[in-house]
Amino acid sequence: MTKMIFVNLPVTDLPASMKFYEAVGFTNNPMFTNDKAAAMAWSDEIVVMLLTHEFWKTFTDRAIPDAHSSAQVFLCLSHDSKESVDAIVAKAGAAGGKAEPTPTQDHGFMYGSSFEDPDGHIWENVWMNMAAVPEGETVAEQPLA
Question: What pLDDT digit, counting tens, does each position of 13-28 carry?
Protein backbone atom coordinates (compact mmCIF):
# COMPACT_ATOMS: atom_id res chain seq x y z
CA MET A 1 0.00 0.00 0.00
CA THR A 2 1.21 3.50 -0.82
CA LYS A 3 2.07 5.63 2.19
CA MET A 4 -0.78 8.05 2.79
CA ILE A 5 -1.97 10.50 5.39
CA PHE A 6 -5.55 10.67 6.59
CA VAL A 7 -6.36 13.87 8.49
CA ASN A 8 -9.47 13.32 10.61
CA LEU A 9 -11.51 16.42 11.46
CA PRO A 10 -14.66 16.66 13.57
CA VAL A 11 -17.43 18.61 11.82
CA THR A 12 -20.82 19.83 12.99
CA ASP A 13 -22.63 19.60 9.62
CA LEU A 14 -21.27 16.85 7.36
CA PRO A 15 -23.13 17.80 4.13
CA ALA A 16 -22.14 21.48 4.51
CA SER A 17 -18.52 20.54 5.23
CA MET A 18 -18.42 18.27 2.18
CA LYS A 19 -19.77 21.09 0.03
CA PHE A 20 -17.14 23.48 1.43
CA TYR A 21 -14.23 21.11 0.82
CA GLU A 22 -15.43 20.34 -2.70
CA ALA A 23 -15.63 24.09 -3.38
CA VAL A 24 -11.96 24.59 -2.47
CA GLY A 25 -10.76 21.68 -4.60
CA PHE A 26 -11.06 18.43 -2.63
CA THR A 27 -12.75 15.44 -4.27
CA ASN A 28 -15.17 13.16 -2.43
CA ASN A 29 -14.44 9.44 -2.47
CA PRO A 30 -17.90 7.87 -2.15
CA MET A 31 -16.37 4.46 -1.33
CA PHE A 32 -15.46 5.84 2.11
CA THR A 33 -18.40 8.18 2.64
CA ASN A 34 -21.67 7.68 4.49
CA ASP A 35 -23.91 9.68 6.83
CA LYS A 36 -21.22 9.64 9.56
CA ALA A 37 -18.03 10.39 7.62
CA ALA A 38 -16.77 11.62 4.27
CA ALA A 39 -13.42 11.00 2.59
CA MET A 40 -12.26 14.17 0.84
CA ALA A 41 -9.12 13.68 -1.27
CA TRP A 42 -6.59 16.47 -1.82
CA SER A 43 -4.32 14.07 -3.73
CA ASP A 44 -3.80 10.34 -4.08
CA GLU A 45 -1.81 10.39 -0.83
CA ILE A 46 -3.65 13.02 1.25
CA VAL A 47 -7.23 12.49 2.40
CA VAL A 48 -9.23 14.53 4.88
CA MET A 49 -11.80 12.47 6.75
CA LEU A 50 -14.71 14.62 7.89
CA LEU A 51 -16.36 12.95 10.88
CA THR A 52 -19.61 13.90 12.59
CA HIS A 53 -19.14 14.63 16.29
CA GLU A 54 -21.07 11.50 17.18
CA PHE A 55 -18.82 9.31 15.02
CA TRP A 56 -15.67 11.09 16.24
CA LYS A 57 -16.63 10.18 19.81
CA THR A 58 -16.50 6.46 18.94
CA PHE A 59 -12.71 6.79 18.54
CA THR A 60 -11.85 8.75 21.70
CA ASP A 61 -13.39 9.97 24.90
CA ARG A 62 -11.39 13.20 24.73
CA ALA A 63 -13.35 16.41 24.31
CA ILE A 64 -13.67 17.90 20.84
CA PRO A 65 -12.08 21.36 21.06
CA ASP A 66 -13.89 24.32 19.56
CA ALA A 67 -11.57 25.12 16.67
CA HIS A 68 -13.01 28.65 16.51
CA SER A 69 -11.38 29.44 19.87
CA SER A 70 -8.55 26.90 20.23
CA ALA A 71 -6.18 24.96 18.01
CA GLN A 72 -4.74 21.48 18.27
CA VAL A 73 -3.21 21.26 14.78
CA PHE A 74 -2.02 23.64 12.10
CA LEU A 75 -2.72 22.15 8.68
CA CYS A 76 -0.77 23.10 5.55
CA LEU A 77 -1.20 22.39 1.83
CA SER A 78 1.48 22.99 -0.80
CA HIS A 79 0.76 24.69 -4.12
CA ASP A 80 2.50 25.14 -7.46
CA SER A 81 2.22 28.94 -7.52
CA LYS A 82 1.33 32.07 -5.55
CA GLU A 83 -1.76 32.36 -7.75
CA SER A 84 -2.90 28.89 -6.69
CA VAL A 85 -2.49 29.89 -3.03
CA ASP A 86 -4.56 33.03 -3.56
CA ALA A 87 -7.19 31.12 -5.56
CA ILE A 88 -7.88 28.51 -2.87
CA VAL A 89 -8.13 31.20 -0.18
CA ALA A 90 -10.60 33.14 -2.35
CA LYS A 91 -12.63 29.96 -3.00
CA ALA A 92 -12.75 29.23 0.72
CA GLY A 93 -14.06 32.71 1.50
CA ALA A 94 -16.70 32.43 -1.22
CA ALA A 95 -17.76 28.97 0.03
CA GLY A 96 -18.55 30.09 3.58
CA GLY A 97 -15.14 29.83 5.17
CA LYS A 98 -12.97 32.68 6.40
CA ALA A 99 -10.18 33.98 4.18
CA GLU A 100 -6.91 34.93 5.83
CA PRO A 101 -7.54 34.19 9.53
CA THR A 102 -3.75 34.47 9.86
CA PRO A 103 -1.62 37.10 8.11
CA THR A 104 -0.51 36.45 4.53
CA GLN A 105 3.26 36.08 4.37
CA ASP A 106 5.53 36.80 1.40
CA HIS A 107 9.20 36.04 1.96
CA GLY A 108 10.22 36.05 -1.69
CA PHE A 109 11.15 32.37 -1.86
CA MET A 110 8.04 31.38 0.15
CA TYR A 111 4.48 32.69 0.04
CA GLY A 112 1.63 31.67 2.29
CA SER A 113 -1.99 32.55 2.96
CA SER A 114 -4.64 30.75 4.97
CA PHE A 115 -8.32 29.96 5.23
CA GLU A 116 -10.59 28.68 7.97
CA ASP A 117 -13.27 26.08 7.27
CA PRO A 118 -16.80 26.46 8.71
CA ASP A 119 -15.77 24.47 11.82
CA GLY A 120 -12.79 26.73 12.52
CA HIS A 121 -9.98 24.47 11.27
CA ILE A 122 -7.20 26.64 9.80
CA TRP A 123 -5.46 25.59 6.60
CA GLU A 124 -2.22 27.34 5.63
CA ASN A 125 -1.43 27.25 1.91
CA VAL A 126 2.15 27.70 0.74
CA TRP A 127 4.20 28.02 -2.40
CA MET A 128 7.98 27.79 -2.27
CA ASN A 129 10.55 28.67 -4.92
CA MET A 130 13.37 26.34 -3.94
CA ALA A 131 15.57 27.78 -6.72
CA ALA A 132 15.64 31.07 -4.78
CA VAL A 133 17.39 29.40 -1.82
CA PRO A 134 21.18 29.80 -2.36
CA GLU A 135 23.06 26.53 -2.84
CA GLY A 136 24.42 25.16 0.41
CA GLU A 137 21.90 27.03 2.59
CA THR A 138 18.72 25.72 4.15
CA VAL A 139 15.31 27.34 4.01
CA ALA A 140 15.63 27.88 7.79
CA GLU A 141 18.61 30.19 7.15
CA GLN A 142 16.61 32.48 4.87
CA PRO A 143 15.24 35.75 6.26
CA LEU A 144 11.52 35.54 7.02
CA ALA A 145 10.92 39.24 7.47
Answer: 999 999 999 999 999 9
